[in-house]
Amino acid sequence: MSEKYVVTWDMFQMHTRKLSERLLPATQWKGLIAVSRGGLFPAAVIARELGIRHVETVCISSYDHNQQGELNVLHAAQVENGGEGFIVVDDLVDTGNTARAIRELYPNARFVTVFAKPAGAALVDDYVLLIFHKIRGLNSLGIWELLSFHHWQENNYYKIKPALMLALFIYVLIF
């Protein structure tokens, strides 16, 4: 059984803020492109920290019932010059399959993740933490399990239902 790296919301937010500091000065950026779903929360934190209001999304499906499969671009943000002046944000680069697709869509964007696994680390421009273990608390490139109002006794995690998460995301961008 492989060892797991446990991620709490506080750790996730701390690492994302550290990533935000590396993206200063904020005036160099036109906006963010959040990779849904995992990149939505780090993008919200980065947008808040840098005062960026222009946030787009790219939706790429590569997981079906927790098994990685064929990549499917469901929605791609339409930005000029291959994403020049934009930051693409995701929570984790794992095998690199999604990262390669992102690079094809936005070759001139700055691509950052909070976490990276060795197989995909070279495909992003910056990340905060290199992880060699399975990540517990992040599910299939997302932090949805991590965020809930229902307390997980075993892990001290909190979850937010997806509709509430969207409301929180919008709140962070507006205020």
From TrEMBL:
Domain Phosphoribosyltransferase: 27-132
EC assignment: 2.4.2.22
A molecular function GO annotation: metal ion binding
Entry GO terms, CC: cytosol
PANTHER family per the UniProt record, alphabetical: XANTHINE PHOSPHORIBOSYLTRANSFERASE, XANTHINE-GUANINE PHOSPHORIBOSYLTRANSFERASE
Gene3D superfamilies the UniProt entry points to: 3.40.50.2020
InterPro entries cross-referenced by the UniProt entry: PRTase-like, PRTase_dom, Xanthine_Guanine_PRibTrfase
Keywords: Cell membrane, Glycosyltransferase, Magnesium, Membrane, Metal-binding, Purine salvage, Transferase
UniProt-listed Pfam families: Pribosyltran (PF00156)
Species the sequence originates in: Canicola haemoglobinophilus
Protein name: Xanthine-guanine phosphoribosyltransferase
Enzyme class, UniProt record, top EC level: transferase
GO biological process: one example: XMP salvage
